[in-house]
Specification:
Rossmann fold; single chain; elongated; Ubiquitin-like (UB roll)
């Protein structure tokens, strides 16, 4: 018997029953639906990973400028040096709290706020201390400025115009005499403040104001400040070098 020659013949699609073709198509769709969420998830993870790496790990969004806002006594350069921010460091990795603390360590700075301004700017906003009185240093050639909290923060060679002197033995936020002086300064009327040259506090109950033309107001302690200020202001129009409002219900002038 002669040998047979076999060969493979690709069947036409029409030779495959339609039910089989539908089954195979549904199987392919099921496989695609099963794979699709994993493919999308992998793509999202990849994109997020690239973004995180770009933001936190490269200089693409690094610091290129430190913007300083609110300075008057200080220069922007002094604030930048205190902030000590490395240029091109990823902006997202800058420790804004640490930068704020370094800036607030400057004696002139009362408080500071640090924020990120995308894509490449770190903004430092400072509020400087406002002087309310000056204290003469030893020798009288320098003056130390104190703010409303009693903090001695700056020494100058000339007393700022319109700023009263404060005679205090140990000025500072914890000093009772300093706190008493600040309480009185807050209570003064504009007329008294304009004429005030020196406030002296020998003890919390021994407060005196020296006004222009060598007039003196004996204030007593720091209580009833608004009443004492109104009474003293009313008596400025009368003659007399000494006005005693330590007991505002029984006022004397001589």
């Amino acid at each position: 018997m002669a040998g047979r020659n076999w060969r493979l013949v690709r069947a036409d699609t029409d030779a495959v029953p339609s039910s089989v073709r539908r089954f195979m198509a549904r199987a392919r769709q099921r496989r695609l639906r099963a794979v699709l969420p994993w493919a999308v998830g992998a793509g999202v993870v990849l994109v997020v990973g690239v973004l995180v790496w770009t933001v936190f790990g490269t200089a693409v969004l690094g610091v290129r400028r430190v913007e300083v806002v609110g300075t008057a006594v200080l220069t922007p350069l002094q604030v930048e040096e205190a902030a000590a921010v490395r240029m091109r460091m990823p902006l997202a990795r800058v420790d804004v709290d640490a930068v704020r603390d370094r800036v607030q360590a400057l004696p002139v700075v009362d408080r500071a706020t640090v924020s990120r301004s995308w894509p490449a700017t770190l903004t430092v906003e400072v509020v400087e201390r406002t002087p309310v009185a000056a204290i003469a240093a030893t020798g009288g050639k320098q003056f130390t400025l104190i703010d409303g909290e009693g903090v001695a923060y700056r020494t100058v060679t000339r007393k700022p115009a319109g700023l009263p002197m404060a005679a205090l033995a140990t000025p500072g936020p914890a000093d009772v005499n300093t706190r008493a002086a600040l309480t009185v300064l807050t209570a003064l009327t504009p007329e008294l403040r304009e004429q005030l040259e020196t406030i002296s506090v020998e003890a919390p109950a021994r407060i005196k104001l020296r006004l222009r033309s060598d007039r003196t107001v004996i204030w007593g302690d720091d209580t009833a400040g608004e009443t004492k200020a109104q009474v003293a202001t009313a008596l400025l129009r009368r003659k007399g070098d000494t006005i005693d409002v330590s007991a505002p219900s029984v006022v004397t002038i001589r």
